Amino acid sequence: MTDSTHPVTPRISTPTGGGDFDIREYTRTAAGSHEATLPLGAFAEHPLKPATLRALAYLRDLEQFTMHHMRDVLVTPSHKDARLTAFLATWAFEKYWIADAYDRILKAHENFVPAKNRARLAVVRFVREFADRISPIITAIRANLIGEDVIAGTVTRSYIDELVNRAAYSQIIKKDPNVALTEILGRFQVLRERHLRFFEGETLRRLEESVSARKLTRSSLRKSWAPTGTSEQPTQETRFMMTYLFGDASGRADALGVDRVVDTLPGLAGLDLMKRQARRLGVRLVTADHTKATA
User: Fold this and answer.
1) Do residues 199 and 166 make contact, with C-beta atoms less than 8 angstroms apart?
2) Distance (Å, rounded) from C-alpha 177 to C-alpha 130?
3) 194: which residues sit within 8 A by CB, 6+ positions away?
4) CB distance 44 to 231 below 8 Å
5) Residues 227/161, Cβ–Cβ less than 8 Å
6) What is the tens place of the pLDDT at every residue in 280-290?
7) % the chain with pLDDT above 90
8) From the CA atom positions of the chain, what is the Rg in Å?
């Protein structure tokens, strides 16, 4: 069922520059609903492990957060860049349908009970909704005072998100080598390779062109990096994901591989983003020779 050429296992390697990304081709061939191609019936005979379902529910929520994230991005100078705006609109469209597919997979497992999210409680929801109303205003004022250099930080964060997601797909398949899920994630990763190529090219170009963009991006990542959307998730679920995906030797290698790629980006060496995130969550990452890397 799964073509061996599907890039489920991540190639954590140094950036190549992304090449010339054809926006017209990308928008023309964007993938919509996956409902007709999902092998959901296979899960009746070979259901996913509970930990796998928990991980997919978390990834679904991150994908659903895209529209919220898009709102904040498009009040910055990003909206003046027609090429970037065209990509982001199509990117959000594809991510919406990936989230929908995750939801269908979860619903195919009738016994799955999702984790409770405090954000769904009435009081917490009220506070979040109030913050959501003023957040775009604050973001717009701050970003437009900074100017176009803020875009470098936006695309760099998205590039790192795609690197982390690629590693996550690899680890999920290693921990639950379900044939149907391998097929599904293989298709998704083919789509996401285009996302990664675009963000890679934009990240390198913008960081290489501007000293101030490099300084601004480095400062922003050092102060507040976490995969986009994780701040909206229960801390225990984020800790579970970090432990489940990156807590063993194979996962540690992939997590540290993300940090090595970030090291190659102009002006961003030594940030150790995955190590720092793991430390915040109380998850220990070690190097291949088993020496401590988060101490």
Assistant:
1) no
2) 43
3) 21, 26
4) no
5) yes
6) 999 987 654 44
7) 69
8) 19
* Both structure tokens of 201: 């090219």
Give the pair of three-digit tokens for residue 23.
Answer: 């926006």
Mean pLDDT, the chain, integer:
84
Task: Pull the structure tokens for residue 49.
Answer: 């492990």
Distance from C-alpha of 295 to C-alpha of 293, rounded to nearest angstrom: 6
Instruction: Work out the pLDDT band at 232, boundaries 50, 70, 90.
Output: confident
Q: What is the 3-state secondary structure (H, E, C) of the chain?
A: CCCCCCCCCCCCCCCCCCCCCCHHHHHHCCCCCCHHHCCCCHHHHCCCCHHHHHHHHHHHHHHHCHHHHHHHHCCCHHHHCHHHHHHHHHHHHHHHHHHHHHHHHHHCCCCCCCCCCHHHCHHHHHHHHHHHHHHHHHHHHHHHHHCCCHHHHHHHHHHHHHHHHHHHHHHHHHHCCCHHHHHHHHHHHHHHHHHHHHHHHHHHHHHHHCHHHHHHHHHHHHHHCCCCCHHHCCHHHHHHHHHHHHCCHHHHHHHHHHHHHHHHCCCCCCCCHHHHHHHHHCCCCECCCCCECCC
Amino acid making up residue 292: K
Is the pLDDT score of 65 beyond 80? yes
- Residue 114 has a CB neighbour count (10 Å cut-off) of 13
